[in-house]
Amino acid sequence: MSDPVTAALLVIGDELLSGRTKDKNIGYIAEYLTAIGIDLREVRVVPDIEGEIVAAIQALKGRYAYLFTTGGIGPTHDDITADCVAKACGVTIDIDPRAVAMLRERYAEGDLNEARLRMARIPAGADLIENPISKAPGFRIGNVIVMAGVPSIMQAMLDNVAPTLRTGVKMQVVTLDAGGLPEGLYGTALGEVAKAHPGVSIGSYPSFSQGNFRNQIVLRARDATILAAAEADVMALLARLRSDSVPI
Amino acid sequence: MSDPVTAALLVIGDELLSGRTKDKNIGYIAEYLTAIGIDLREVRVVPDIEGEIVAAIQALKGRYAYLFTTGGIGPTHDDITADCVAKACGVTIDIDPRAVAMLRERYAEGDLNEARLRMARIPAGADLIENPISKAPGFRIGNVIVMAGVPSIMQAMLDNVAPTLRTGVKMQVVTLDAGGLPEGLYGTALGEVAKAHPGVSIGSYPSFSQGNFRNQIVLRARDATILAAAEADVMALLARLRSDSVPI
Q1: Is the domain of A64 the same as that of A176?
Q2: Is the pLDDT of residue B189 over 80?
Q3: CA of B78 vs chain A CAs: smallest distance (Å)
Q4: Of A133, A164, A195, at which residue does a domain stop?
């Protein structure tokens, strides 16, 4: 079985740290990468400060197969992601004629002013990622994939870049409803099942609404056989506890 | 003026990185801390892996005035946050009689089994944070504040711990609607305004819906006078551009 393909996500923007904007990209990208067989292993959110962005890119791009970034590639002075990526990758950055050609699909020659041309600044050696919505491209340089922060544009860019990515064997997932059993009743026994199936990641997830907890047990593995064995043990555990338990 | 009080947030849980659960805590905590005068400077999301959690706690607690964590303090085997915090802080961890007393408010003596007692494992020297919903407490040790992942419980814990925190001068915020002007038209001039007001953080935030961009310019500063001066310059800039611009 091939090794897992890993990724990190770097979310860039003061507005997310101040709470002004509520991020909608982390959950989307997490679900998307899982579905195509890439394991998202870490997410960081950093402000629009060059030193912070460069340091995070350098820390993450060496550690995972891919680093995705969102945000900071627009036309205003606080859009500094492209410059930070160039710096972190040790390459130059300049206005890229391919990116200018894309912008020309949207803007007449005379409207391509200094600010808009900022969106054509691309690190040397990068491949462009098309943006069907507002034309200003994302890009990929080495294992770093730079996308917009606006969710609809980010999603279109992710669709465009995904077919070019190496992917691993997809994680298979089984979700079991604990059927009214509290976590505290199955916690210890579930831990023993988890120990007995080291190739399966087993988590227990409570959610709380309208005064009640609802617990789900999630099993994840790349191999269907070992997943099924663990599932059978968890099912047996839940059945045993349900028959033992008095209503709580 | 006092120095800003800074914070980081560490979000713990495989389920967020797989996309199974969509985080609702980052935006809430960001907005909450901003409102009470604490600057959230960085967020990380890590999986339920001891080495990752310990490394992130150690990296973040030394860098910011406070480190908040969410997730991983329930009764199942994948709830390892308390042990990781103890390890990162170099202290022992054991069942804490104060936490057991809190759990007894919910569970009869005979129901306090091994799994539930996991929720009473508290690093030595920590102060407890009450949990009015399900009783299992959060805790604070040094500058590390450990909270539940379930949003309603996390929110109650944050309310309980907030009055004990040092806060700084609150950030004041002005949001200006760009009134139909595209970012590319004001980008360069706005950058000049930003340069002229180094004490003010100025950002431009596009949102895109139903085929249209709507841009907002956000100015942030702790001093009302310097904020007002920057606001006046941005207002003048927008007025000038609006009178210049033809409909786009």
Answers
A1: no
A2: yes
A3: 6
A4: A164
- In the predicted model, is pLDDT for residue A162 greater than 90? yes
- Give the domain CATH number at B203: 3.30.1370
Q: Hey, is the C-beta of A218 within 8 angstroms of any chain B C-beta? A: yes
Show contacts of A81-84: CB within 8 Å, 24+ apart: A81/A12, A81/A53, A81/A146, A82/A121, A82/A122, A82/A123, A82/A139, A82/A146, A83/A50, A83/A121, A84/A50, A84/A53, A84/A54, A84/A57
Task: Please indicate if any CB of chain A lies within 8 Å of the CB of B41.
Answer: yes
A152 at interface of B, judged by CB pairs closer than 8 A: yes
Does A232 lie in the same domain as A134?
no
Full DSSP string of B81-104: HHHHHHHHHT--EEE-HHHHHHHH
**Nearest CA to CA, how far is A44 from chain B (Å)?**
4
Residues A140 and A20 in one domain: yes
Q: Which region holds residue B210: left if phi is over 0, alpha if psi is between -120 and 50, else beta?
A: left
A157: DSSP letter: H
What is the average pLDDT across A126-155?
97
User: Hey, what amino acid is at B237?
Assistant: L
A241 vs B: CB within 8 A: no
Q: Do residues A135 and A17 share a domain?
A: yes
| Whether the complex's predicted ipTM surpasses the cut of 0.90 | yes
Predicted pLDDT at A208: 77
Question: What pLDDT does A245 receive?
Answer: 61
Q: Are A179 and A202 contained in the same domain?
A: yes
- B133/A208 touch (CB, cutoff 8 Å), yes or no: yes
Is A156 in the same domain as A203?
Answer: no
Last residue of a domain, one of A129, A164, A199: A164
Whole-structure pTM value: 0.94
B52 touches A at CB < 8 Å:
yes
The CATH number of whichever domain residue B155 belongs to comes to: 3.40.980.10
Average pLDDT of the segment spanning A9-17: 97
Our count of domains for chain A comes to 2
Domain residues for A15? 5-164
- Which of 87-116 (A) contact B at CB < 8 A? 107, 111, 113-116
CA of B161 vs chain A CAs: smallest distance (Å) = 19
